[in-house]
Amino acid sequence: MRQPAGRKSTARDSDWEGVRLHVVTGKGGTGKTTVAAALALALASGNRKVLLVEVEGRQGIAQVFDLPPLPYEERKIAVAPGGGDVYALAIDPEEAMLDYLEMFYGIKRMGKALTRMGMIDFATTIAPGLRDVLVTGKTSEAVRRRDKSGRRVYDAIVMDAPPTGRIARFLNVTQEVAGLARVGPVKNHADMVRSVLASPETAVHFVTLLEEMPVQETLDGITELRTAKLPVGGVFINMVRPTTLPDTVLDAAAADRFDLSELALGLKAAGLADGKADASLIAEALALEVSEHARRTELERRERGTLDTAGAPRYDLPLLADGVDLTGLYELAEAINEQGAA
């Protein structure tokens, strides 16, 4: 891949070599925006330039990077590990509509008048899918954009997309605008967007937790995308807790075969309890913690087995003990790079 002027080409060993648009989706509460931000940092590492796009108007990117609300313009927000730049764009459908009017009709000034009259909001409300076409179109334009020398402006684009339950409809723009126009700029624009989203240059990644509901939504979302012939990427398992005890202990705890008296003796021998009664109380509390950990581990193993049926690459991202901050984002970006996802 050719690099924009002023940046050196960096060899990469990635599962998604050749993919330029990474669409990130996931059930609410799984950390979708956090993973999208970390993926952008990972992709930018090694002196690359990446655009992180938000399409839902929640200002989630600004929050995760601890920044003021982002305007409708591309601006640099972070430096990636080892060099490289992450830019961000919070897409506003009204502004995207004005860009569209200027691009295809040369009437942006009139479009501003329509905005004041509320006509653009009216149009995106009554025209099914038009709003999605506008925001995905802006992203697709960034994928295809080149500088004056003909080189790609961005090495990769990461889209913080809508939740899993809406992702197939959101991306399947050709079907959504079929009733709007069969010829002309609207159809041409939708076809251009579809040509990007359905191409090998795009991968739709899913973020999940090892819990029943998000795992099932992930499987349903993957099935919907494959039915719509849209490219499925990988599955990022977020907030993975380390298994700190041997399997023999976990199996015993899960089967209620935990020996409390032996545990109490061990606590007393280690000097962690004073007297038999104290040791017994601590042993009971500790056994309860171990049993809960064992049940959680058993659930996570079962959900991992369920995810096997998706036939998609999987990547584990650790639970951040101190919560999500910029340091945590770099930690997640490192985990993504180590596993070959970027």
Can you give a write-up of this model?
The model is unreliable at 1-11 (pLDDT under 50). The chain has 342 residues and is an alpha/beta fold. The protein has two domains: 21-241 and 319-337, Rossmann fold (3-Layer(aba) Sandwich), CATH 3.40.50; 247-296. 50% of the residues lie in helices and 14% in strands. Strand 6, helix 10 and strand 7 form a beta-alpha-beta unit. The chain has an eight-stranded mixed sheet, with helices on both faces. Pfam families: ArsA_ATPase. GO terms for molecular function: ATP binding; ATP hydrolysis activity.
Write the layout of secondary structure elements.
Elements: E1 21-26, H1 32-44, E2 49-54, H2 60-64, E3 75-79, E4 85-90, H3 93-105, H4 108-117, H5 119-126, H6 130-144, E5 156-160, H7 164-171, H8 173-176, H9 185-197, E6 202-208, H10 212-227, E7 232-240, H11 247-254, H12 260-269, H13 275-308, E8 314-318, H14 326-338
Parallel strand pairs: 1-5, 1-6, 2-4, 2-5, 6-7, 7-8
Antiparallel strand pairs: 3-4
InterPro entries: ArsA/GET3_ATPase-like (IPR025723), ATPase_ArsA/GET3 (IPR016300), P-loop_NTPase (IPR027417)
Pfam families: ArsA_ATPase
Protein name: ATPase
What's the quick description here?
The protein has 342 residues and is of the alpha/beta class. It has helices at 32-44, 60-64, 93-105, 108-117, 119-126, 130-144, 164-171, 173-176, 185-197, 212-227, 247-254, 260-269, 275-308, 326-338, and strands spanning 21-26, 49-54, 75-79, 85-90, 156-160, 202-208, 232-240, 314-318.
